[in-house]
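QA checklist item 7 of 12: single-chain prediction sanity check.
[x] sequence parsed
[x] length recorded as 292
[x] structure emitted
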Amino acid sequence: MAETNRELADFLRRARSQVDPSRAGLPPDGRVRRVPGLRREEVALLAGVSSDYYTRLEQGRRITPSSAVIEAVGRALELDDAGRAHLRDLIGAAGTPARRSPRGVQRVRPGLYQLLDALDGEPVLVLGRRTDILAANRMARALFADFDRLPPRERNYARWMFLDDTARSLFVDWEEQARTVVESLRLEVGRDPDDRATVSLVAGLREHSREFDRWWEQHRVHRRTHGSKRLRHPVAGELTVRYETLTLPGDPDTTLYIYSAEPGSDAKRGLDLLASWSLTDSAGTPARGATD
């Protein structure tokens, strides 16, 4: 079975196991449940398809369900928007040939560097495919880490989060942030499960991090659009920053993460202190790099 079909089968099985049968509106049949969640035939019933059809779908067989069937299966499995998007991605990828050649190197346009300069007062990260760190302004490097000093192939947010001890000590809510990274990466993998660089990244993280391996096995997905992070910074102290994400219309594989704090708050004063400190500690130029 191709990697894409394995991903689809695994996601459906795990999603099915997490549905509470008592909330699904199914009539009692008196059968003893030996495993958690719904049975295959129950998902089929709720989705309005035959048991054989759903079984073949969960087994990763070469079938192409309609949009209506995909939505019905998503409702039966109680998937949120991210889960339904992941299901559509996996089904779409399963119906296309596997990618045989690696995608090109991602590069940041000069205009985007100008935007980083204009947003110098706020920490800004530019992430690419598989959470590669494509650029970071002065404030982002001061708040998180100086990614520009890392070898280009190590400039990856997921890798830094799980394999760098400074990340574990920086985030007060490290487990929450790390799980979100795993679930976001899972969502991205669904769009191209056979991408060699992504497969290599995931394999390395699963080998070197027990937490990553355990959460990856759960096959949960999450779409990061906004949120907050709690940090214990050696210069700025304890602070909570909020972030908003901007995906470039002309480059959907590139996302800006812009961090800020509420005016007049302790967090804002911490960022202001960090801004003054970073001016004396570095030249303050954006990290410019390209990764595979």
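[x] summary fact logged: Confidence is low (pLDDT under 50) at residues 283-292.
[ ] second reviewer sign-off
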